[in-house]
Amino acid sequence: MAEREVFAMNKRLYPVSREVFDLEIRPIIEAVTKPLGGRPPKIDHYTCFCAMLKMMSVSLPWRDLPPEYGAWHTIYTRFKRWSENGLMWQILYALKQKKLVKMNIVFMDSTTVKLHRHGSGAVAKKGGSASVKMSQGMALKST
């Protein structure tokens, strides 16, 4: 019974098997990222990639990353680098082409999201603020 619970937890936290990762994903990562020397990374690519998938699927803040993955900031930094250089899209596109992943992508902007009536901020006062009047007065006096 305990083994079954551990497997279910691992399947939930690690949605991609190690074999699929080594065959399909690792070559893409290694083609783009070159080791620069120095110390080895604290979190391996497999754990980091599974953590990224988890965070993309649940839409939580990075600080709420489950501790089983490791330090949230390390994973966030790697996700940010991979996103900026296009590696994350390359991986997801390759997995989509091989039908190993099903993705639904939704683009949202301010025209599709309803805003609460208090979310637009305070109403501007007529006549400008005191600091603007003071700076205009100072400019007039200095000439």
Structure description:
By secondary structure, this protein is mainly alpha-helical. The chain has six helices and no strands. Helix 2 crosses helix 5 (87-97) and helix 3 crosses helix 4. Residues 1-9 have low confidence and may be disordered.
**Mean of pLDDT:** 78
Structural class: mainly alpha
Helix percentage range: 40-55%
Give the number of DSSP strands. Answer: 0
Order of helices and strands: HHHHHH
How large is the radius of gyration?
Answer: 24 Å
Biggest β-sheet description? none
The outline comes out as elongated
Strand proportion: under 5%
Describe the protein's topology.
Layout: H1 2-13, H2 18-32, H3 45-58, H4 72-84, H5 87-97, H6 130-142
Helix pairs in contact: 2-5, 3-4
In short, what is this structure?
With 143 residues, this protein is mainly α. It has helices spanning 2-13, 18-32, 45-58, 72-84, 87-97, 130-142.
Keywords:
single chain, 143 residues, disordered N terminus, 55% helix, elongated, 6 helices, mainly alpha
